[in-house]
Amino acid sequence: IGNATEGSLEGADELDFVESDSPLLSQFHEDAIQQAGTGPFQRLLLLVTGLSLAADTIELLVVAYVIPSAEVELCMSGTQKGWLAAITFIGMMIGAMIWGSLSDNVGRRRALLSALFVNALFGIMTAFMPTYGIFMTTRLCSGIGIGGGIPIVFAYYCEFVTQPERGRHLSWLLVFWAIGGVFTALMAWIIIPRTGITVVLDEEHHFSSWRVFLVVCSLPSFGAVIGLYFMPESPRFLLEKGREVEAMIVYKKIFKWNNANNPGAEYQLTELELPSGPHRPLRHNPPQGVGKNFVSDISYGLEQFWGLFLQLFLPPYLKTTLLLLIVWLTCSFGFYGLSVWFPEYIKLLKSEEYNRHANVTVEDVFQHRSFNNTTLDNIKFVRAIFNNVTFSKTLINHVLFVNSSISDCLFSDVRSSKTFFKYCHVARNTFIDTDIYDYRFQDCEMIDNKFHALAPGCTLDFDYNIHYREVFQENLIGQLTMIPGTLITSLLMDKLGRVRIMSVSMALSSISAFFIWFLNSKIGVIVFEAIFNFIFISGWNALDIASTEAFPTHIRTTAYGFLSAASRIAGVLGSLCFGQFIYSSRAIPMLATSVVLMIGAIVSLKLKETKDNLL
């Protein structure tokens, strides 16, 4: 307790002298960046940090594409699949808190580099994990890495651009978030099998398609790591830490890069024009040893965490922190909740349509017949008689035998899905190389049946009646509509301001949620999702930018990390809640979305505009 209190007081003391000096440093940084210019350097940095942001979307979406295939090979139950989806959010929450503080202590570039390396390393390791337990562990670590990178990406990039252009540049950066989603959907379309039966056949290969997909999806993180290796530290961070000489070197490097076609040009500002003061040498720097290896960085970041974190809940930042927290929670709850509801509701609509077209046969008699190299699909046999019937190399999909008699039959090399025998008389049958396990016989009379060489592997009942084409299409269209929404936002962000765009976008999204009531077809759901994402993404982008600009340099990524971590919790809660709404009235997701987003819109109006803030 004594150490925590001491750290908090130390943080408060630092706040006192930082506040007196930050405006001068911010103005100098703004002048220095303006003179360094905007050009090739910022464009290259946009690409590098954009890859980092794309990796975040990939991390969020990749599990949804992998689960249908991985559940067969890793034999995952419904609960285990749920935890696999949640573990990414848990990892992101942990990473955001740790690396947010780390970035404010040891530097933007170094912290971002280590976070993305963790994500890339464990992301590719996940593809080779043979069991559910270690697969979950690597997914957690991968989530921790990318969760740690997100708070840093925005701060790192915005500290290299001028105040008048900041909103537009950060909006361009956010385009990569949507591009990451499009990349994931396209790679899934190309690599992963598109039907349930092809998923099962794919598992026979030594290295399944979904594992290849995971390897490909780790490439943007590796690309970002390589690019960041050649990028400089944020000059604004260096100024904040009293490392003026290093900061000036970075400014000159940016200037030289942007004026490569004018070799005679010289950078005008010098260290002599830096603001001076008797307190500047007291500025807090990491102790010796920090910055030399990853372990020392993490250890130092954790030691300094509370001193920075508690400042968020002290004047003058308390009100801003609480208002942004509410807006983040409402946005994440509504957006991630609907992101789960849309695809699941499409599956429900297709399932209902499939069931309506079921073929029902009553009291049919099948004797001395053979079903060879064929498929029995979506059939309900009621009081049927099967005698001396051979089923060979047959797929039995969604077939129900009710009050039927199956006797003296041969089932050889048969694969089944969602197929059950209920209240049946099952006598003297032979089952060879099949997956017709005991649980498929429910309240049946079993007499002298022989089971030989049941299919090895997972005994869970995998649904063959899944067509991933619709899932890929729905996600692809939803992500594509975010790109024009973000580009339009980039034109308005600096003119209208963050708060106005945020509140209008969330209010319109809240109103549009009432149209959920009219969604009764797959096409309707996809069109609505596209329109909703187009409207909502503007507010989300404005929130990202405002959260970056609302806090001073020394706690900028700590604050964003805390808000990002809290949003992950809200995202998990939203996913769980909306997952329960699938089979209920559409009024529940409609009202839940509308209410939470309207609360966020109203609260956002209380925020101070940040577009004129100097960093």
From TrEMBL:
<keyword id="KW-0812">Transmembrane</keyword>
<feature type="transmembrane region" description="Helical">
    <location>
        <begin position="558"/>
        <end position="582"/>
    </location>
</feature>
<feature type="transmembrane region" description="Helical">
    <location>
        <begin position="82"/>
        <end position="99"/>
    </location>
</feature>
<keyword id="KW-1133">Transmembrane helix</keyword>
<feature type="transmembrane region" description="Helical">
    <location>
        <begin position="134"/>
        <end position="158"/>
    </location>
</feature>
<keyword id="KW-0472">Membrane</keyword>
<feature type="transmembrane region" description="Helical">
    <location>
        <begin position="525"/>
        <end position="546"/>
    </location>
</feature>
<dbReference type="InterPro" id="IPR005828">
    <property type="entry name" value="MFS_sugar_transport-like"/>
</dbReference>
<dbReference type="InterPro" id="IPR055415">
    <property type="entry name" value="LD_SV2"/>
</dbReference>
<feature type="transmembrane region" description="Helical">
    <location>
        <begin position="322"/>
        <end position="342"/>
    </location>
</feature>
<feature type="transmembrane region" description="Helical">
    <location>
        <begin position="44"/>
        <end position="67"/>
    </location>
</feature>
<feature type="transmembrane region" description="Helical">
    <location>
        <begin position="111"/>
        <end position="128"/>
    </location>
</feature>
<dbReference type="InterPro" id="IPR020846">
    <property type="entry name" value="MFS_dom"/>
</dbReference>
<dbReference type="GO" id="GO:0016020">
    <property type="term" value="C:membrane"/>
</dbReference>
<feature type="transmembrane region" description="Helical">
    <location>
        <begin position="170"/>
        <end position="192"/>
    </location>
</feature>
<feature type="transmembrane region" description="Helical">
    <location>
        <begin position="501"/>
        <end position="519"/>
    </location>
</feature>
<dbReference type="InterPro" id="IPR036259">
    <property type="entry name" value="MFS_trans_sf"/>
</dbReference>
<feature type="transmembrane region" description="Helical">
    <location>
        <begin position="212"/>
        <end position="231"/>
    </location>
</feature>
<dbReference type="GO" id="GO:0022857">
    <property type="term" value="F:transmembrane transporter activity"/>
</dbReference>
<comment type="similarity">
    <text>Belongs to the major facilitator superfamily.</text>
</comment>
<feature type="transmembrane region" description="Helical">
    <location>
        <begin position="588"/>
        <end position="607"/>
    </location>
</feature>
<keyword id="KW-0813">Transport</keyword>
<protein>
    <recommendedName>
        <fullName>Major facilitator superfamily (MFS) profile domain-containing protein</fullName>
    </recommendedName>
</protein>
<dbReference type="Pfam" id="PF23894">
    <property type="entry name" value="LD_SV2"/>
</dbReference>
<dbReference type="Pfam" id="PF00083">
    <property type="entry name" value="Sugar_tr"/>
</dbReference>
<feature type="domain" description="Major facilitator superfamily (MFS) profile">
    <location>
        <begin position="45"/>
        <end position="612"/>
    </location>
</feature>
